[in-house]
Write a structure and sequence with these properties.
This protein is α+β, with helices and mostly antiparallel strands and 351 residues long. It has eight helices and 16 strands. The strands form three sheets. It has a seven-stranded antiparallel β-sheet with strand order 1-10-9-4-3-2-5, with no helix packed on it. The chain has a six-stranded antiparallel β-sheet with strand order 11-16-15-14-13-12, with helices on both faces. Strand 9 and strand 10 form a beta hairpin. It is globular. The protein binds FE2/S2 (inorganic) cluster and fe (ii) ion (FE2). FE2/S2 (inorganic) cluster binds next to loops.
Length: 351
């Protein structure tokens, strides 16, 4: 099933793989593993990102084994010295005059890549429709026509804090956890204290209560203390100065928007029972560049919540090995999105 999901879901969807700041300069590269492929993401001299398979077109050596770095002016295969430009075009072949006709057209296989919200998204499907067609319906379903995302100007924010969680659970168990807030009153005292609506079993992504959720009475920020850690982001309107928004963008991103920061969670499936999750806290550059700035009070509330969630996911993964664990689990009305998620998975696998 994981192989099939790798091919038909991760191999055909736009997948968020990194924050754009991880590939900052001309020649910078990042290697990503996705859908059974090794992919290189490279920034060229004009600042554009190119995506290409990490596969030499001579005899198929992987070009690069490092996770991140800078290629300089070109990408050179260390086997026989074929050389590619930062856009993946073949630019140099030793003894070219001895090579068969057609050799000059053996550029690296390109992979679709785009940037959105300050993140790098890739798609292995060369006939992929634009990213907006993948996320647009999810955004409209969640926020209707009053999409608040633009107010947070996420593409201009900087990653101030990053935590990587290695979770011993299948990626779908994680999504099913995020899909419901029936567990919030039991599992998340810190989150419920910050956003009391979660105590009612409906989070912001499942509930009938509206688009966003108010912070606790008296709170002026989304943090353990209820105080903001940074000034409100400049374009957030006054009516949202105490609002928490969340959105799930299947298959690998969940984002939280609060007045003074944005939290982005990236789900990177590693295998049938292991999932890497990268959580990043993003702040306005003015505060992010202040060496005295500490986001800790804000970081803690979601970091603690994430760990509570992942503990529960790991227990479900352990339960999944029982012969009695099956799809005929019982779901409360709070858990209606789990059925939607399963239908979405099934529809993708059936294609
Ligand atoms: S395999 Fe790369 S140059 Fe030969
Ligand atoms: Fe949770």
């Amino acid at each position: 099933m994981f192989e099939l999901e790798s091919q038909r879901i991760f191999g055909r969807s736009w997948m968020c793989v990194a924050h754009s700041s991880e590939i900052p300069d001309p020649g910078s590269f990042l290697r990503a593993e996705l859908g059974g492929e090794s992919i290189l993401l490279v920034r060229d001299r004009a600042g554009h990102l190119a995506g290409m398979l990490n596969l030499c077109r001579h005899r198929g050596a992987q070009l690069c084994l490092e996770d991140q770095g800078n290629f300089g002016k070109s990408i050179r295969c260390s086997y026989h010295g074929w050389t590619y430009g930062l856009d993946g075009r073949l630019v140099g072949v030793p003894w070219r005059d001895k090579m068969p006709p057609g050799t000059e057209g053996r550029h690296l296989h390109s992979v679709s890549v785009t940037e959105w919200l300050g993140y790098v998204w890739v798609n292995l499907n060369d006939k992929a429709s634009p990213l907006s067609e993948q996320v647009g319906p999810l955004i409209r379903e969640r926020f209707g026509e009053t999409n608040p995302i633009a107010h947070y100007e996420t593409e201009h924010l900087k990653v101030v804090h990053k935590v990587t969680y290695d979770v011993r659970a299948n990626w779908k168990i994680l999504w099913e956890n995020f899909d419901e807030c029936y567990h919030c009153p039991t599992m998340h005292p810190e989150l419920c204290a910050a956003v009391p609506q979660f105590r009612g079993g409906y989070g912001t992504v499942t509930g009938p209560q509206g688009l966003g959720a108010p912070l606790a009475d008296g709170a002026t920020g989304f943090s353990m203390s209820g105080r903001p850690v940074a000034p409100m982001l400049p374009k957030v309107p006054a009516e949202d100065e105490r609002t928490f928004y969340g959105i799930l963008l299947w298959p690998n991103i969940s984002i939280v928007f609060v007045p003074d920061h944005v939290f982005c969670m990236r789900i990177e499936p590693q295998g049938p029972d292991s999932t890497r999750v990268v959580g990043e806290w993003l702040f306005h550059p003015d505060i992010a560049d202040d060496p005295t700035f500490s986001p800790e009070d804000a970081v803690k509330v979601l970091d603690v919540t994430n760990r509570e969630d992942f503990d529960a996911c790991e227990r479900v993964q352990l339960g999944a090995h029982s012969r009695q664990f099956d799809d005929s689990q019982v779901h409360s009305p709070f858990e209606h999105r789990i059925a939607e998620f399963r239908r979405w998975v099934d529809a993708n696998l059936a294609q």
